[in-house]
Amino acid sequence: MLIPRLPIGDTVEFAVDWVEGNFGQLLDLASEQLDFLISGLKDALLFLPPELFVLVISLLAYFAGRQNIKLAAGTAFGFFLIENMGLWELSIETLALVLSSTLLALIIGIPLGILSAKNTTLLHIVKPALDLMQTMPSFVYLIPALIFFGLGNVPGMIATVVFAMPPAIRLTNLGIRQVPKELTEVADAFGSTGWQKLAKVELPVALPTIMAGINQCIMLSLSMVVIAAMIGARGLGYQVLFGIQRVDIGMGFEAGLAIVIIAVVLDRITQHLSPR
Fold first, then answer.
1. How far apart are CA 242 and CA 104, in angstroms?
2. In the chain, fewer beta carbons within 10 Å around the N or the C end?
3. Alpha-carbon span 97 to 154, nearest angstrom
4. DSSP string, 208-237
5. Distance separating alpha carbons of residues 221 and 263, to the nearest angstrom
6. Residue 172: its pLDDT value, please?
7. pTM beyond 0.90
8. How many other CB atoms are found less than 10 A from the CB of residue 232?
């Protein structure tokens, strides 16, 4: 029985169409899941009344700061100021986008940093990519995100993850490599497995450096989320962009002040969470 064969040109065209179709479906699926994550986190944060949300985050700041009443009071004052300026929903949307982007960046960045610390060859491969990611102008990240995911929060999240991930990788790698050899030799002498040594010796010792990477990841995420408003990411960044377009100094200043408040609160909380 003879099997009919397609001409080479038709075969290549069929293969290209098949790859494009499946790749498009994969991008759509990823976009749906990421959008669900951002929307779900936003809805969860907006479910709490502003007063209750301020109480919760102030208590978090208080206990994270080891009973630091000044940090808790400053956090409460800052978020009440945001609510008083009428920017509560936009601020929560920005906070949800920052937290979801940071979470994704850390899920990828911390394991990659650990692997880089364990494998020098991988480190030599990863370092040029990190150099490129850190030196590339932040606006450039918007272009491929826009091409693959269109307008909205998802391309803003993708661009933010790429921009904010390098500190998490670099500082995790640095923290693991700075663990004293004496400690790892003691762990080996007691017969620890690789996982036991990582979990009970290396990660606890490297935790302050890793937390510094997490802090920088959050700060970079917040700065990039504002820029991502240019490709449709909602929140305070869009308010700043709208104020620039209308030359409305008051609108832009209020949105910028709300961004600063969120940045300072997140920075102080993560700094105090780091062990000394």
1. 28
2. N
3. 9
4. HHHHHHHHHHHHHHHHHHHHGGGGT--SHH
5. 10
6. 93
7. no
8. 17
